[in-house]
């Protein structure tokens, strides 16, 4: 097991240093195999299933730590799939989509959305962030830290809300709309 | 989108007795922690291109004044840590468009109660201070903390300062964001 798995300390209900189990749902066998290989190399336990819609009925969603759904085939209704997941569980969900306009139209929110094509490195990193956030949530529970000689209480995790990757992107986009761009990295590069 | 309605919702959940007491005047204060400047030039990552743009906007100064005071005994620091501000009406519009009204309301309630990790609510400035850009409130998104050169502030305009109570609250937030217990997940060596 590689060191990277040590990021996943204390996943709630799984004990310390549990190996995260990820469900991969999609129609493209090769894409599922590629993702499985990349994520297994990072120390995750992967359960890949073709025929996403029927797999959702069969699986005990709560036995997984993360769900990744490829909704690229046009006949798959991503919102409906997420809604069905949410009826059963609140586990993190990553949606993979080939539709560039899916993000603003998704009413049933996923925790993250990765447009295709994407590199496996991006997928691995997004998975790491989502899983680490789960671990952090428990780490922060009512601990005290010492600063400048004073004991201060870290807010209880039950009251702390963490921005999802999608929310983080909304915040970054809003910041960009709040400022005036006076020069870009690309334009500097072209001049030099 | 009704920015005024969302601001009202945030203020109803803001656990700070007098939002007006969150601020004071910026004049005659030297560059340092607690000040909000307009026209600050700083780097902003461009996700589409994978490099940085140079942008200008509102920013809160994190670096303590002692570190950028040339007459201080310490070595003068020519870089200043800042956090850009997002006006509330901008985030409200963007967030609602992507995640919907109900989630936006939920977020605003949590932000106003100071319960969202690395997001800090700045209430509207009092009319007396004359800071139009902050009259609708703003958010500090602490994931965007960055540094800029001290010379930038020669052309930036100080618009207001957080009050002592305001800065205490933000310092506490910064402390929670930056000084988390780090023992979990790190190699135990030595």
In short:
The complex is a heterodimer of chains A (192) and B (190). Chain A has 192 residues and is α/β, with parallel strands linked by helices. Chain A is 40% helix and 20% strand.
Series of H and E elements of chain A: EHEHEHEHEHEEHEH
Structural class, from secondary structure content of chain A? alpha/beta
Q: What would you call the quaternary organization?
A: heterodimer
Low-confidence stretches of chain A: 1-17, 136-158, 188-192
- Class per helix and strand makeup of chain B: alpha+beta
> How would you state the average pLDDT of chain B, rounded?
87
Average pLDDT metric of chain A? 69
Distance between the termini of chain B: 56 Å
Describe this protein with a few key phrases.
heterodimer; A: 192 residues; 5-stranded parallel beta sheet; 8 strands; globular; disordered C terminus; B: 190 residues; alpha+beta; 8-stranded antiparallel beta sheet
Characterize the structure shown:
The complex is a heterodimer of chains A (192) and B (190). By secondary structure, chain A is of the alpha/beta class. In chain A, 40% of the residues lie in helices and 20% in strands. Chain A is globular and about 55 Å long. The N terminus and C terminus of chain A are likely disordered. Chain B contains 4 helices and 8 strands. In chain B, α1 crosses α2, α1 crosses α3 and α2 crosses α3. The longest helix of chain B has 15 residues. β8 of chain A pairs antiparallel with β3 of chain B.
What is the strand and helix layout of this fold?
The complex is a heterodimer of chains A (192) and B (190).
Chain A: E1 21-26, H1 29-41, E2 45-50, H2 52-58, E3 66-70, H3 78-88, E4 93-97, H4 102-105, E5 112-115, H5 120-139, E6 144-147, E7 150-153, H6 165-178, E8 180-184, H7 185-191
Parallel strand pairs in A: 1-2, 1-3, 3-4, 4-5
Antiparallel strand pairs in A: 6-7
Helix pairs in contact in A: 1-5
Chain B: H1 3-12, E1 23-24, E2 35-46, E3 51-61, E4 79-87, H2 88-99, H3 101-112, E5 119-122, E6 138-141, E7 146-149, E8 157-162, H4 164-178
Antiparallel strand pairs in B: 1-8, 2-3, 2-8, 3-4, 4-6, 4-7, 5-6
